[in-house]
Amino acid sequence: MKIVEAHLVQLAAVIETGGVTEAAAMLGMTQSAVSRTLSVLESRIGEPLFVSGRRPMQPTPLGEQLGLQGKSILASSRKAMEIIRSFKSGSSGRVRIGGVPFFMDAAVSQMIASFQRSEPGIMVHQSYGNYPDLVAELDSGQIDLAVTPTGAVDLRADLHFEPILPARNILACSAGHPLLRKRNIATGDLLSYPWVTPLPGSPLVLDLNNILLTLGLEEVSLRYAGGSLLSVVNYLAGTDALAILPHSVAYAFRGENKISVIPLDIPQPERVLGIMTRKKPYSNPAGRKFLGHLRREFSELRRAVEKHETTINWLPGPFMGDRKTAAEGSS
Predict the structure, then answer these.
(1) pLDDT: is 315 or 35 the higher one?
(2) Which helix (H) or strand (E) holds 20?
(3) Rounded to the nearest 5°, which phi and psi values hold at 329?
(4) Which of 149, 293, 295, 318 has the fewest CB atoms found within 10 Å of its own CB?
(5) Other C-beta atoms within 10 Å of 329: how many?
(6) pLDDT tens per residue, range 147-182
(7) Looking at residue 157, what DSSP letter applies?
(8) Residue 177 in contact with residue 258, Cβ under 8 Å?
(9) CA nearest 195: which of 168, 181, 215?
């Protein structure tokens, strides 16, 4: 004997409302349709489902047990409809974002937090990677969007890249570093201190090599490598080491009195930080809402970093040429 689930739902509605008319109204059905369902169900089971002559309608012990099953189905159906409505409105769901490590930790994680204060129903999963890794993860559907720097490269036709932050790299050091007290900085000054090696695969590796080429040097003293952003900041704060960081990353630590910016013009990279997505992603209203939030947050960050840059008295130093307007160096 097969019981139709919809029949159990109608049975539960009658028990819940106490009458066929009321149940029909709740379910958006006609009274006659619900009455037929009860008759069919009783005939198929061979047992009465309601006590005869009781108003409001009172289920028999069997009717009550079957009604509980129908109530469970009805609750699941309502929950499913709520999930659909919430998903379509972008109020629930999941967003998977990947990005370059230092920038994700310094800026994007805070943007995720501010997003979820207004959208607590959306789960955000954050992962790390450099440009080639992020392209592969977009291809395989492991992430929905990526925050990554790129230069003059041709994106594939199925990928979209939206620039979000103009560039500026800086030399970072401890808040009490001796170079901060110098009015002029020469090449020898930069060689007098150890340096932090950027993470493998990071664009900052190329930036460090560019600085060495500009100075005509083969190498500097590299003393620390492989650390996370917090590890690098803590290492800088406890030593006289130097490191290349995106200005926006250093800006994120401005209130902690751990690191500072050496006000020295350095060669800037020819790349830009942006958001990369597939041009034809699957439907994800929560992802679209999160993308809009990132755009607004990056716009505010851009203005704040540019304002901070104007407060620094930049020294000419040993580097030749003017500062380039380029993209955000990121790690």
Answers:
(1) 35
(2) helix 20-27
(3) -70, 135
(4) 295
(5) 31
(6) 998 865 667 888 999 999 988 899 999 999 999 998
(7) T
(8) no
(9) 215
Residue 103, classified by CB atoms within 10 Å of its CB into exposed (0-12), middle (13-18) or buried (19+), is: buried
Q: What is the dihedral of CA 250, 326, 204, 331, to 10 degrees?
A: 60
Question: How far is 119 from 126, CA to CA, in rounded Å?
Answer: 16
Take residue 118 and report the two structure tokens written for it: 């207004």
Q: Is 259 helix (H, G, I), strand (E, B) or coil?
A: strand
**Beta strand pairing call for 195-197 and 222-225:** parallel
pLDDT score for 97: 98
Confidence label for 317 from pLDDT (cuts 50, 70 and 90) = low
pLDDT over 80 at 74, yes or no = yes
Is the predicted pLDDT of residue 40 greater than 90, yes or no?
A: yes
Q: Please give the single-letter amino acid code of residue 265.
A: D
User: What pLDDT is attached to residue 215?
Assistant: 77
Interatomic CA distance for residues 128 and 108, integer angstroms: 11
Q: How many CA atoms lie within 13 A of 159 on its CB side?
A: 23
Q: Exposed/middle/buried for 192, CB within 10 Å: 0-12, 13-18, 19+? A: middle
Q: Which residue has the tokens 């650390």?
A: 227
Q: Which domains does the chain have, with CATH numbers?
A: 5-89 (1.10.10.10), 93-165+272-306 (3.40.190.10), 169-271 (3.40.190.10)
Nearest to 90 by CA among 318, 301, 312, 288: 288
Give residue 319's pLDDT: 64
Q: How confident is the model at residue 82 (pLDDT cuts 50, 70, 90)?
A: confident
Half-sphere exposure of 291 (CA within 13 A, CB side): 20
Phi-psi label, residue 46: left if phi above 0, alpha if psi -120 to 50, beta otherwise: left
Q: Cis omega (within 30 of 0) on the bond before 285?
A: no
* 126, containing H or E segment: strand 122-128
Q: What local confidence, expressed as pLDDT, does residue 325 receive?
A: 36
Rounded to whole angstroms, the Cα distance separating 317 from 261 reads: 14
Burial of 283 (0-12, 13-18, 19+ CB in 10 A): exposed
